[in-house]
């Protein structure tokens, strides 16, 4: 598994993505979300407003390989942040948490096969090349049909990863999230006190 992962990293150029890779304008401008702060233990926290992602628009604008490369770059940014936090805090930081906001998520996104294929492929990339990096995933504002969408992805998740995914319907997630993440680390869009980014809003 390690040899295969090292070969994959070489092929995709993972080591140089942060400094040298300039993503397609559509991805840089319209891929929603990003690294917003850290949890109470110092681990990176990402927010991905998945329901506001124009998947069809992106797929019609960029190649599949470009989309994958950009997401891998985000993973490498998280890896670098873990290293920085480890040095700054004097303790090992090797996991991150992700908040997937499903507000505005529609059945069309579930039913469109290219999107499902991409999600399952990315899950496999994460499982094969970034094992045990997920600390916790909060799926918030989940619509009633979310279990059907999740059922398409779950078979590709390891048992350990699946245990770390927690799903919350509207208005039930804040207490759980705030138990692990201080509101000062979250943008106001998600009930926090951190100023929203001025250059690029998280929700487009």
From TrEMBL:
<dbReference type="InterPro" id="IPR036865">
    <property type="entry name" value="CRAL-TRIO_dom_sf"/>
</dbReference>
<feature type="domain" description="CRAL-TRIO">
    <location>
        <begin position="23"/>
        <end position="198"/>
    </location>
</feature>
<protein>
    <submittedName>
        <fullName>SEC14-like protein 2 like protein</fullName>
    </submittedName>
</protein>
<dbReference type="InterPro" id="IPR051064">
    <property type="entry name" value="SEC14/CRAL-TRIO_domain"/>
</dbReference>
<dbReference type="Pfam" id="PF00650">
    <property type="entry name" value="CRAL_TRIO"/>
</dbReference>
<dbReference type="InterPro" id="IPR001251">
    <property type="entry name" value="CRAL-TRIO_dom"/>
</dbReference>
<dbReference type="GO" id="GO:0005737">
    <property type="term" value="C:cytoplasm"/>
</dbReference>
């Amino acid at each position: 598994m390690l040899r295969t992962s090292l070969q994959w990293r070489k092929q995709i150029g993972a080591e140089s993505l942060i400094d040298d890779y300039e993503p397609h304008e559509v991805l840089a401008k319209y891929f929603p979300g990003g690294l917003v702060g850290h949890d109470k233990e110092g681990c990176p926290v990402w927010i991905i407003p998945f329901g506001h992602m124009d998947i069809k628009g992106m797929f019609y604008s960029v190649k599949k390989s470009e989309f994958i490369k950009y997401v891998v770059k985000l993973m490498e940014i998280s890896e670098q942040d873990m290293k920085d936090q480890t040095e700054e805090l004097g303790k090992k930081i090797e996991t991150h948490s992700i908040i997937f906001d499903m507000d505005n998520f529609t059945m069309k996104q579930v039913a469109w096969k290219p999107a499902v294929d991409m999600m399952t492929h990315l899950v496999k990339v994460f499982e094969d090349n970034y094992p045990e990096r997920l600390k916790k995933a909060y799926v918030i504002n989940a619509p009633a049909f979310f279990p059907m969408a999740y059922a398409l992805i779950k078979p590709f998740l390891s048992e350990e990863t699946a245990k770390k995914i927690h799903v919350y319907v509207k208005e039930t997630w804040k207490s759980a999230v705030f138990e692990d993440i201080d509101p000062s680390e979250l943008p106001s869009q998600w009930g926090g006190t951190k100023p929203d980014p001025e250059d690029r809003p998280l929700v487009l």
